[in-house]
Amino acid sequence: MAKYRLFYAVIWIGSAAFALSYESKLTFVLFAGVTVLPIISLILMVLSGTLLKLEVVPDSDYVGKLQDFGITVKVINRFIMPVSPMMIIGTFHDRNGSVIEGRRLVLSVASLRRCEYAFEGNIRCRGEYLLGIEHAEIFDILRIFRFRMRKTPMCKVVVTPRRVLLDETTALCTDDYDSSITKISFMESGSFASVRKYEDGDLMKHVHWKLTAKHDELMVKQSEQNLGSSALIVTDIHETSEMPEDNLQAADAAVEAALALTKKIIADGRTAVNVYRPGDGRVDVLSAVKDEDYEKLLGVFSVIPVTQSGKGADSLIPRAAEYLTGSEPLFIITPALSGTEFAAILRAVGGACGEIRVYLTASRPDDRLIAEAGAAKKASVWTIDRNDISLSLRNSMQFGL
User: Fold this and answer.
1) Which of 7, 113, 266, 270 is spaced 20 to 30 Å from 101 by Cα?
2) How far, in Å, CA of 112 to CA of 108, rounded?
3) What is the pLDDT of residues 17-43, one digit of tens each?
4) Which pTM value belongs to this model?
5) CATH for 1-160, options being 3.90.1150.10, 3.30.420.10, 2.60.40.3880, 3.40.50.1380
6) Strand ranges (DSSP E) for 59-153?
């Protein structure tokens, strides 16, 4: 832009010298035209920028991880003069799954027309992303002045974790509590605590057919175990690497494993109590009984942040211990866990839970952790393969304690 201003200054000086050397109406008109032209150009640019409208429209506000989607940038020119050139700088995604800041787009728009440009791609890590235009400006015809747009639209896109499914025929837990339910179902024995109306997501095998026929609507049996916390899932996503990308991928593997376990527990007709950090230092608990609860947890896990390295899974156990009654299996999913931290967890839970399974998503167990798990009667440590979370969980289910 500086060179255009320099070029204009040379023309203006030349026209002024020419007007002084040859005093005539023609040279004076030339000098006046060169002088007034930037003012006219500035006025037209301001009017054009005032009547210009920018829009950023995503295909969807919620997309799955690595799922292709588009964001359309719309430039609407409501002025009788064309807009050319115009520069847009923003944050957008690409086909490699990356989110790139400072992407530039130079375009022109005809008078009373609109111009659309679509950014296509996907995002490789779950989370909440702010995409769109960060800076937009137009230039006058002479490229001497610039007009910066005050309103630069952005859109918020939530990228959800992958839905990992587990084999419905595989037993999730191997402790005595789970085996007793599997061998002698309370639904078959007739021992149940209450009856309620059928809701979406309930298993048909839990239907109380006699009361259904009497009330002319589906009624479902509910046991004392199902009214409590049948399984407890502690999901911890803290920093373990200096590379932000590695921390995000480890966190994704943790929440996807937790969601897969939750889905399996719900399918088995039980309750999954999830303990996690939603951010701002708090610890939240969400009990999942139906598919609607799973969908809610999916939305929550899409945006929970990665916490600092000083806060690991052991800091979540005091809150989790409030929901233990002595028989529930405890699943701990974390990027990394030391033997010292696991020993503190064992002391905190005592004998208030059943089997304990630790899943690591960013590291392998150290010798102290292996020794602590071996010394405990019902504890095991597993490593999650980020590329095949389902296989890792199935292996832990098939070769458990």
Assistant:
1) 113
2) 12
3) 888 888 788 888 888 999 999 999 999
4) 0.78
5) 2.60.40.3880
6) 62-64, 69-77, 83-93, 99-109, 114-121, 127-139, 146-148
Which residues of 140-249 form beta strands (DSSP E)?
146-148, 154-160, 194-197, 219-222, 231-235
CATH superfamily placement of domain 176-190+228-398: von Willebrand factor, type A domain (3.40.50.410)
Nearest of 325, 208, 291, 307 to residue 255 by alpha carbon? 307
What are 179's two structure tokens? 């085996």
Amino acid identity at 86? M
Q: pLDDT, tens digit, for every residue of 351-391?
A: 788 889 999 999 999 999 999 988 887 899 999 999 999 99
Answer whether 331's CB lies under 8 Å from 363's CB: no
Token pair 């590695």 is found at 246
- In Å, what is the CA distance from 40 to each residue of 34, 141, 144, 294? 11, 10, 12, 62
